[in-house]
Amino acid sequence: xxxxxxxxxxxSGLSARSWPIEVGWCFQxxxxxxxxxxxxxxxxxxxxxxxxxxxxxxxxxxxxSKGEALEAVCESxxxxxxxxxxxxxxxxxxxxxLYRLFQAARIRQQFILRDxxxxxxxxxxxxxxEYIDRVDKEAPRQHRAIPDVLHMRALYSLAASQD
Length: 163
Known about the structure:
Blueprint: E1 4-11, E2 20-27, E3 33-36, H1 50-56, H2 60-66, H3 70-81, E4 85-88, H4 91-105, E5 113-115, H5 125-138, H6 145-162
Parallel strand pairs: 1-4, 4-5
Antiparallel strand pairs: 1-2, 2-3
């Protein structure tokens, strides 16, 4: 399949009012891209979870100093991903945070998020578990956007090469 992209978002927490702090994406080939996101004025610091910060390691102050404007992040995403098949390993959460991002920027999202695991429906569960275990060692998830999209890409590449 052509034009497959992988996307991952990190967030302020896992509450119903949490908001995105980082987005990363990559394609089947080439370098990954990531953006730290400067918080929107309407996103409350009350929704900043110190447990989430300990997991991803991104301090709120870092977002203020190095985060990019919402509009710039959304434009970068639309430019890179419009018309592509975009996969996430957590589409419910990532979709929620993309919605919050694009809504706050007042920009229309020009790509559709899909479930990464829908690509593997024909692979038996025991084989898939084997692939996941292997990729967990070779390209582990780190709760940061770039390592996590590279993890998805490695899983897809391994599974596709076995077909």
